[in-house]
Amino acid sequence: MSNDTHYEVLARKYRPQTFSELAGQEHVSRTLQNAIDSGRVAHAFLFTGARGVGKTSTARIMAKTLNCERGVTHEPCNVCPQCIEITKGTSTDVFEIDGASNNGVDDVRDLRENIKYLPSHSRYRIIIIDEVHMLSTYAFNALLKTLEEPPEHVKFIFATTEPHKLPITILSRCQRFDFKRVTLPKIIARLREIADKESVVISDPSLTLIARKGDGSMRDSLTAFDQVLAFCGNTVGDDEVGTLLGTVDRRLMAEISEAVFNGDTQATLEGVKTVDMIGYNMRQFCQELIEHFRNLLVIRSVKKPEDILDLTVAELDELKRQSGNISALDVQRRLTLLIKAEAEMSYATFPRLIVEMALLKATLLSPVVPIQELIEKIKALETGSVHTPEFAWKAERTPTVAASHSFEPVQSTAPAPRPAERSVVVPVASPVPAAIGSSSWGRFVNFVNEKQPSTGSVLEHGSPLKEETGLIEVGFPAGSYYVTAGQDPDFIAEVAVLAREFSGHETVIRVKAISADAGATPLSLAEKKKSDAEQHLEGLKREVENHPVVREAERIFGAKITEVVGI
Q1: What are the pLDDT digits (tens) for 247-260?
Q2: Can you list the domains of the chain with their CATH numbers?
Q3: Dihedral sign, CA of 145, 148, 151, 153?
């Protein structure tokens, strides 16, 4: 680099001097060049856009193009006296005015007086007003008439970062050109070109960090590059750039995000500790994490992320590798947590704690089942392609009684019952050839409910273990109220009388306690009713979930079904 005592900063030294050097604004350059070539040059232009994207540089190039001694052409020569004077800012026919410091009505009146005179040695008097939105309302009003009908030898070029602050009467009198933010690859390419001219040894990752620091502004990127060169000299190290610019290493971002998706809380908190030990600002770190997760979300959501993300090819490939099989929904859930944490950090006393809590929540998030997968399962259930258990009352419960346990019918010479069972023989006058078979257990319980509701309510909780002519064997859950009530002699006698009345047979009633270590037993009527109710509710849930109105409400409001109640 130059060792002269007078050092010219890179932003000024490498300021664009022709339309072809104007990076990232090709749409503006082409339109202005075509207008010059065709002789359709307006009398007033308005250049709008973010800081450092080339608005004032374009105004100077335009001025040189119109006043170049070699003639009006789409590129200035930059060697004639007129071009040199405009480049140095010493031309008497090109006025560069700062709208912030010359914003009064008197300033505009002086300007109006000056532009009446013909240019001294140029074709046009060109008025460049930077930050024109800073003019007062009275100044704008004083400018209106002149702006609408200026002298033929005058051209106005306005530049502003906030066009919405200009009166509509001013906007309607100007040709407006919107300058875009310069893309990251173009800034990097320009920085590489300058680095080669300055004989600076620097890697592409370092140039990427510098370009990202500029945030779409070429001037800001060159200013950051100047700062790096002042610190590092002609040989720049990657670690030095990151430390100087205060940016988080992209590799550290990748490691933290990978730990989050892998559920590794140890690695996640160690990553935050590393960031804190280096001395990064926690809120800036959180913002860069948000940007990182946003990039992952875009990659997982669109087919051509390169058209949306302002990333280099290497960065894009690395992010695609990181995203792997992560779903867009998983990234979105974690991104929401980080955005909320960043908002809380503006008034937080412990910013590191907020970042740690947000990342821990993101790390410990349980996975969600995609809605499409649930819909497919429901469709499979509806079509019967998936096996569903039978809900008939005779269906067997999960193994609850021992397979080796047997139930023998009671004979007329039966021994005394064991403590766990009781039996009563009730004689009948005239037997009727009808038995309480398995198909009639429900009808028998209903019959008992009509005659003795209290007795029937107990039988509803019993499982018919054996049903033969002259024998009913009922099982109740061991240790329950129902087995105690069922083994009461009066209860058994009452059931026997009702059984005789129902079937016309002398019937033995045997009550047993069934426990978890016994074999399979049929469902009781109460269990069957419960199963039927659950089956009915499941049917209601499927019907509600598949209803087009409910689906549309879920789509529009982002709602979800939390409970379905049968009425």
Answers
A1: 777 788 888 998 99
A2: 10-178 (3.40.50.300), 184-245 (1.10.8.60), 250-363 (1.20.272.10), 422-522 (3.30.300.180)
A3: positive
